[in-house]
Design a protein that fits this description.
There is one protein chain. The protein is mainly α. The chain folds into 2 domains: 57 residues, Homeodomain-like (Arc Repressor Mutant, subunit A, Orthogonal Bundle); 141 residues, Tetracycline Repressor, domain 2 (Orthogonal Bundle). Helix content is 76%, strand content 0%. It has 11 helices and no strands. Helix 1 packs across helix 2 and helix 2 crosses helix 3. The longest helix is centred in the first third of the chain and has 25 residues. The termini are far apart.
């Protein structure tokens, strides 16, 4: 099975792959890539080690598949930016979607951040290929709106980087944010109007 990644999956096979990836997310989040073992992934998935290795030949294969799946999910809101939409509304919707994802998927955000901090050994080709192309497309849409005078002129690539950094900060540095704010605060609820106002003031014309 591990040698035939393009073979169609049955419903049970897809379910088991999903269980393995969810178990891997748990194991990698707790122990990091180097510390996590296939045994730990199997235990978290509720499957036997041989069953895990039936779907993925190595821990490295599991990690790369998980990261690629997470990256596709993480980039989906950018793909939905509508070049025919109202520019400021489209940007603010993208910001809101990214903040929603940080709130719903903090483990995924931290796992991706850890991979980047390690030099992206499992994602280097994707980062310089499909990711770069997607970001360039979004940046071109933003630049077009700016050229038309519909958004304030800023560097579109760095605008995108700032959205990533600001929204994912609340997932990646959750412990720090909550410690500073103290009890009784919901960082995501409180951050949402501030972040929206920030980009509205930066980009409105």
């Amino acid at each position: 099975m591990a040698d035939q990644p393009d073979a169609p999956l049955t419903r049970i096979q897809q379910k088991n792959r999903d269980l393995i990836l969810e178990g891997a997310l748990t194991a990698f989040s707790l122990h990091g890539f180097r510390g996590a073992t296939v045994d730990q992934i199997a235990e978290a998935a509720g499957l036997s080690k041989p069953n895990v290795l039936y779907y993925f030949a190595t821990k490295d294969d599991i990690h790369k598949t998980l990261l690629t799946t997470l990256l596709d999910m993480w980039l989906a809101p950018m793909i939905r930016i509508d070049p025919n939409g109202e520019p400021l509304d489209e940007v603010l919707a993208y910001v809101s979607a990214k903040l929603d994802m940080s709130q719903r998927f903090p483990r995924e955000s931290r796992l991706f951040a850890y991979e980047i901090l390690q030099g992206a050994p499992h994602l280097s080709e994707i980062l310089g290929g499909s990711l770069r192309g997607l970001v360039d497309t979004a940046a071109a849409i933003l630049q077009g709106w700016m050229d038309q005078g519909r958004l304030a002129p800023v560097d579109p690539h760095h605008l995108i980087f700032s959205i990533w950094a600001l929204t994912q900060h609340y997932a990646d540095f959750d412990v720090q944010v909550r410690a500073v704010l103290g009890p009784g605060h919901d960082p995501f609820i409180e951050a949402r109007p501030f972040i929206g106002d920030l980009y509205r003031k930066v980009l409105a014309v």
